[in-house]
Amino acid sequence: MISSSIILFLLTFGAGYLVFFLPKVNNHFFKFALVFAGAYLFSVTVIHILPEIFSQGESVAYISLYVLAGFFIQVILEYFSEGVEHGHLHNVHENHQHGQNKWLGLLIALSIHAFLEGTLLAHPDTIHSHDNTNSVFFGILMHKMPASFALMSVMICHLHTKWKTVLILVIFSLASPAGLGLSHILHDAEIFSDKVFLILFALVSGNFLHISTTIFFESSPDHSFNFKKLFISLLGALVAVLAEFSF
User: pLDDT tens, 161-217?
Assistant: First the structure.
């Protein structure tokens, strides 16, 4: 748990801090990186998270309602985050003109999402069918790193003081480790039952389904065929399968 929390924090913080050295990124490279991460995240959700939560003996319809709820919770969060969690870099300056305090809602929405992601890495033995959460961990990392960079790109336009921007990056980087640590503590103290974790995992899987499919839709807004996108999507899915069955 400690090593996972440290890695989560450092890589999320490092990816966000890169914005001070790389204020502009190649849009094509960034888009394809998002497609890869989205394909990986979608695949891990389908082959790892959903099978585990549906194998717990609870009613399939009961669990499905929470997956559906997680999907629409993410819709609501994106109203405040404006899609930064799936790497939006566009309309930064326009958003800045809409309100000086909009960054606060963005930070809160992203931190709630990141906190819920962290709970997914908690490991109640009665829910996880095996000890392989590495594939999920890698998926969260690949999702959080571009999100962190995009968040800092937005914050630089809202806040002109570097220390404030870095403070926000620290808060965001701590959100997932906090979710992981608190979940472990509450589970060990028997405050969170296995059923509560099952609900949390179902909600997060709904979040992931929304984020990953949105990445696909937005990468081809005109629905034109793109061989590179298809290849990178298949590569992301293949890496997810290998990560799931190789550890």
Answer: 888 889 999 999 999 999 888 888 887 787 877 788 888 889 999 999 998 888 877
C-alpha distances in Å from residue 44, one per residue of 2, 35, 37, 208:
23, 14, 11, 9
88-96: long-range contacts, CB 8 A cutoff, minimum separation 24: 88/150, 89/25, 89/27, 89/30, 89/150, 89/153, 92/153, 92/154, 92/157, 93/157, 95/154, 95/157, 96/154, 96/157, 96/158
Cβ–Cβ under 8 Å, residues 75 and 162? no
Gyration radius of the chain over CA positions: 18
Residue 56 CA to residue 62 CA, distance in Å, equals 11
The pTM score is: 0.82
- pLDDT (0 to 100) of residue 138: 86
Closest C-alpha to 4, from 120, 149, 87: 120
Q: Other C-beta atoms within 10 Å of 131: how many? A: 9
Read off the DSSP letter of residue 46: I
Answer whether 147's CB lies under 8 Å from 173's CB. no
**Degrees, nearest 5: CA angle 205-242-181:** 45
State whether residue 82 is helix, strand or coil: coil
Separation CA 94–CA 82 (nearest Å): 12
User: Each residue of 73-113: pLDDT tens digit?
Assistant: 988 888 777 667 665 555 444 544 445 566 777 888 888 88
Q: Judging by beta carbons within 10 Å of its beta carbon (0-12, 13-18, 19+), is residue 37 exposed, middle or buried?
A: buried
